[in-house]
Amino acid sequence: MAEITDFMKLDMRIGEIISVEYNDKAINPAYKLQINFGDEIGVKNSSAQLCENYKPDELMGRKIISVVNFPAKKIAGFKSEVLVLAAVTRDKGTVLLKPDFDVEIGSKIL
Questions:
Q1: Phi and psi for 5 in degrees, rounded to 5?
Q2: What is the rounded CA–CA span in Å between residue 99 and residue 76?
Q3: pLDDT tens across 68-106, in order?
Q4: Would you list the DSSP string of 20-36?
C-alpha cells in the first residue's frame, strides 16, 4: 500500500497543450506534445498515446493534468519530460483527465 507521503512526492500540475505533432517513430500511435505549465515550470514535452480519441486540433489549447517531476525518458526518439494523466478504459480507450473549471496553468493538484 502507498502512504500519503508517497503521494505527496508527486508534483502534479495543470498545463495547456500548445503544440501537437504525430510521432511517426512510435510503435503505438502517439503524439508529441508541448505543454505550457506557466512561469515556474515552463514548457515541457510529453509523448502521449491519445491518437484513438483525439485529433491534433482537439488537443490544442486543452488544459490537462500531468506529473511534472518524473525523470525525462526517451520515447521513440522523443524526450518526454512529463506524464499526461488519463483514464484507460475498455470501451472508450484512453481519455484525458481535465479540470472541471478553467484554472490557471501551473496550478498544483493535491
A1: -65, -30
A2: 29
A3: 999 999 999 999 999 999 999 999 999 999 999 999 999
A4: EEE-TT-SS--EEEEEE
Say if CB 102 and CB 92 are below 8 A apart.
no
Tell me how far apart the alpha carbons of residues 49 and 40 are, in angstroms, rounded to a whole number. Answer: 26
What cell was used for 17? 497543450
Phi, psi of 57 (to 5 degrees): -70, -25
CA-to-CA separations, 7 to 18, 83, 85, 106, in angstroms, rounded: 28, 15, 15, 18
φ, ψ dihedrals at 59, nearest 5°: -90, -30
Count CB atoms within 10 A of the CB of residue 23.
21
* Three-state DSSP class for residue 77: coil
Nearest to 63 by CA among 109, 2, 26: 109
